[in-house]
Design a protein that fits this description.
Strand content: 25-35%
Structural class: alpha+beta
Helix content: 25-40%
Distance between the termini: 175 Å
Largest sheet: 6 strands, antiparallel
Radius of gyration: 46 Å
Strand order of the largest sheet: 1-14-3-8-9-10
Length: 261
């Protein structure tokens, strides 16, 4: 019960209370964690759960997320505590007798952390600031004997989550979002940017092809004109009129035309 005991010693956040955060929340898809006991729709078999925290080591702040099936029954969950080390428990799998420690070489040192929880059937993956810190499969071999039949727990499809269990609440998570909303917005923005860039590229290509086409057409016209000039028949100018006149012979003198005696 060490893990749960540490959590119970943490100051509880009453339902509806808000926590401070230094995290940038310019992305409208992030939602502040306020209703800690409220069930939040979340199909974790299709979409990942994203959490933002800004807790210091040794603060004993805790991430506490319970998984519920469509009957609203608890079927698993995650407990992460910022103690002397960052430790974790897989709820309804580990018996809370001893905590598991994330490797200090895996957990990023930044205070502001972005956690991604990915559940795929019995498999669970956790990333922190892009670093994979846990990748395991829940089974009778990895869970304590009390939770050996995992078909009743982690084998169930998760339909909703809750940031509390009993009188214990999540004291570390400031904001969360489910991929179904955030990823669709991000994809839409990327699609718009891609479409705009595609249109710009098409316009530039059309203008370039047009300029090159005009240049080639003009150059071809010049070549054709030169070739036509070279193939024209030579033109000979007519001689002057005075060169075309018939020769005029003057009559001989009269004394030369007399008959000889």
């Amino acid at each position: 019960m060490i893990g749960l005991a540490i959590l119970l010693l943490c100051p509880n956040i009453s339902e509806g209370a808000e926590t401070d955060s230094k995290t940038d929340i310019s992305d409208i898809s992030w939602k502040r964690v306020t209703q800690l006991t409220q069930l939040i729709p979340a199909d974790l078999e299709k979409f990942d759960l994203h959490l933002k925290t800004s807790s210091y080591m040794r603060s004993n702040d805790a991430i506490l997320v319970m998984f519920h099936n469509k009957e609203e029954r608890a079927v698993g969950g995650i407990l992460i505590i910022f103690s002397n080390a960052v430790v974790y428990e897989l709820l309804l799998c580990h018996d809370l007798i001893e905590v598991r420690i994330f490797s200090k070489y895996l957990i990023p040192a930044e205070i502001d952390k972005h956690w991604v929880i990915e559940k795929n059937g019995y498999g669970i993956r956790i990333r922190c600031n892009g670093v994979l810190v846990l990748d395991t499969t829940v089974s009778s071999r990895t869970c304590d004997s009390k939770w050996s039949d995992q078909s009743k727990y982690w084998g169930q499809k998760v339909s909703s989550i809750r940031f509390s269990i009993g009188d214990s609440y999540d004291t570390a998570t400031n904001y969360y979002y489910i991929d179904s909303v955030a990823e669709s917005d991000e994809i839409e923005i990327k699609t718009k940017k891609t479409s705009a860039m595609t249109i710009i590229i098409i316009i530039v290509v059309i203008l370039f092809v047009g300029v090159v086409g005009v240049y080639v057409y003009h150059d071809n016209c010049k070549d054709i004109a030169v070739q036509n000039n070279m193939r024209e028949e030579p033109v000979f100018s007519a001689p002057p009129d005075n060169m075309r006149e018939e020769p005029v012979f003057s009559a001989p003198p009269d004394n030369m035309r007399e008959e000889p005696v």
